[in-house]
């Protein structure tokens, strides 16, 4: 008989939040360690870490009263948190759009009056794909008006994919610059000026 698969970290977090929302009470950690395994299937040993991760993400409140520490979370708290996360996501999208715009401007300058080469063509194609992906992401954000957690998670993953794509092609540009420098023995500053590559071009964290 196959072993039963344990809960993922995200499943534990979701179940713990459900427990808080359903009970609408204040708990000490030792109480949660007794209730969570019975009602939500979260092993007692992981309860403390799960609750702390929710506290760190501002999804669960905590306060020390006397010598005791209490934890709580209400549905209204979740709504506020999702709104804040949505706002943060919008800022990331805006930053990504600026990065994409900067990359397009650099490539347009590099392409002007020059013969096409496969590396540059590949970069242009990939940037077009990233632009389309970004548009899809903006459409996903529109769906977030109802504060749908699934939509938020999907949009967050799309953001990470978008960042990976931008960083991958930023790496291609830097590699191409290094190859030209070594192949033709050209100063890096001259290459940057000739192809319109910013000297501070870097990866997105």
TrEMBL record:
Which terms are listed as keywords in the entry?
Coiled coil, DNA recombination, Meiosis, Nucleus
A GO BP entry? reciprocal meiotic recombination
Q: Recorded GO terms, molecular function?
A: double-stranded DNA binding
Q: Which Pfam families match?
A: LZ3wCH, Mnd1
Q: Start and end of every Leucine zipper with capping helix domain?
A: 150-204
Question: Where would you find this protein in the cell?
Answer: Nucleus
Which Gene Ontology cellular component terms are annotated?
nucleus
Q: Does the keyword Nucleus apply?
A: yes
Q: Which residues form a coiled coil?
A: 86-172
Ranges for the Mnd1 HTH domain? 16-75
Q: Briefly, what is this protein's role?
A: Required for proper homologous chromosome pairing and efficient cross-over and intragenic recombination during meiosis.
> So what family is this one in?
Belongs to the MND1 family.
The protein's name in its UniProt record: Meiotic nuclear division protein 1 homolog
Q: Which organism is it from?
A: Triatoma infestans (Assassin bug)
């Amino acid at each position: 008989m196959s072993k039963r698969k344990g809960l993922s970290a995200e499943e534990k977090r979701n179940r713990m939040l459900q427990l808080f929302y359903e009970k609408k009470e204040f708990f000490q950690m030792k109480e949660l360690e007794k209730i969570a395994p019975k009602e939500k299937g979260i092993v007692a040993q992981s309860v403390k870490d799960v609750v702390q991760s929710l506290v760190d993400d501002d999804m669960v409140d905590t306060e020390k009263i006397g010598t005791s520490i209490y934890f709580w979370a209400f549905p209204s708290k979740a709504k506020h948190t999702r709104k804040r996360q949505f706002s943060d996501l919008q800022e990331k999208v805006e930053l990504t759009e600026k990065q994409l715009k900067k990359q397009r401007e650099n490539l347009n300058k590099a392409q002007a009056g020059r013969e096409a080469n496969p590396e540059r063509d590949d970069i242009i194609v990939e940037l077009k794909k990233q632009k389309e992906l970004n548009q899809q992401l903006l459409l996903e954000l529109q769906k977030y008006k109802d504060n749908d957690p699934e939509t938020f998670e999907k949009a967050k993953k799309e953001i990470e994919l978008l960042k990976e794509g931008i960083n991958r092609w930023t790496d291609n540009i830097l590699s191409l610059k290094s190859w030209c420098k070594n192949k033709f023995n050209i100063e890096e500053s001259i290459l940057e000026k000739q192809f319109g590559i910013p000297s501070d071009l870097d990866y997105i964290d």
